[in-house]
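Title: Comparing notes on inverse folding

I've been comparing how different people in this forum approach sequence design from structure. To keep things fair, I'm posting one structure and asking everyone to reply with a full sequence. Here's the target:
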């Protein structure tokens, strides 16, 4: 299997293209200070991950901005303070403020020269539209949780994407899924037999950050420590 074998790169967005952990931590600061949370960033991200994955499983039809607001309220209760509706709403609306990783724009522009680029994201359309302004390219297709009615790692998200790509003449063997989260992306990609590339954004950092721990046996076909490394490898191939 070679990178040159593929025609389509499907991307997770948050954690892969957008630095959602920095964005989440920045947007949580008012609540963290109000609650006097004394644990470090990694513990905060782990609590966020647990609340988010539970909420996504419980309310798969809920728009992501609304879901984030609910998660914010759950964190307030977990940290022993009353939730604030306006604060919840501000957190839910913070998606567009989350920064892109420094290498994202240049890497996407380089990859666009060789591949069709697709988004498969656990977000709503408005949230991705706000983030897309930071990404520097136009994507050939965008599939969101709002379109599909479920959140990754539900395999329906990947089935939906592949059905849409098949309508455009692409086979599973044409597609490489590019993502950071082993839990949200690589495990369900494994389940449907889709090749994947792990962008190991957290290399050298213990824990799983803002994602839940992956299931045992999850695998990937390629590993890169940045999107820039993927783009550079493609350029040399």
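Reply #1:
Here's my take.
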């Amino acid at each position: 299997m070679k990178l040159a074998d593929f025609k389509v790169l499907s991307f997770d967005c948050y954690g892969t293209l957008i630095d959602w952990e920095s964005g989440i931590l920045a947007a949580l600061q008012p609540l963290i200070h109000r609650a006097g949370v004394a644990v470090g960033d990694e513990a905060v991200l782990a609590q966020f991950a647990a609340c988010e994955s539970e909420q996504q499983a419980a309310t798969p039809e809920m728009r992501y901005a609304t879901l984030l607001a609910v998660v914010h309220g759950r964190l307030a209760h977990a940290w022993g303070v009353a939730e604030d509706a306006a604060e919840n709403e501000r957190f839910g609306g913070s998606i567009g403020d989350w920064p892109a990783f420094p290498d994202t724009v240049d890497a996407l522009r380089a990859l666009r020269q060789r591949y069709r680029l697709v988004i498969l994201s656990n977000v709503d359309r408005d949230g991705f539209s706000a983030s897309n302004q930071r990404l520097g390219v136009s994507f050939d297709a965008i599939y969101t949780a709002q379109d599909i009615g479920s959140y990754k790692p539900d395999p329906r998200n990947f089935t939906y994407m592949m059905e849409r790509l098949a309508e455009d003449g692409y086979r599973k063997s044409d597609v490489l899924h590019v993502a950071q989260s082993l839990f949200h992306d690589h495990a369900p990609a494994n389940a449907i037999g889709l090749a994947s590339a792990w962008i190991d954004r957290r290399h050298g950092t213990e824990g799983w950050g803002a994602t839940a721990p992956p299931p045992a046996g999850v695998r990937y076909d390629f590993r890169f420590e940045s999107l820039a490394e993927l783009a550079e490898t493609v350029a040399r191939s």
